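Batch manifest, entry 17 of 40.
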Amino acid sequence: MSAAALLAGFISGMLGALGLGGGSVLILYLTLVVGLEQAQAQGINLVFFVPCALLAVICYARKGLLARPLWLPGALWGLLGALVGSWLSGMIGSDALQKLFGILLLLFGLKEIFHRKQPPRVSLPKK
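Output type: structure tokens
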């Protein structure tokens, strides 16, 4: 395994645990460096994401950082979104999927640059 692959995996896991979308790094690595099709890269990202997400959930739960009124509905809607997204990815060509991914990265990046910080609406329990 190359140093680039190890670094991409480490950074993806770290950013994912921080809630910053580490899968984007992994997908970029797999498509730009390894040369995989977008759909293949996304599939590998999903396999990579599951154990990382489970570990992150355990760590966040131990710290009391999970807002209980939000996580269950969010997870359920996320599952529905995953089903719809998986279905759609089979219908969209690889070129269109790459362009859509690039546009989403650009839009989220612009949002982060120009977003004004709002106070949280849900208070987390204090330790």
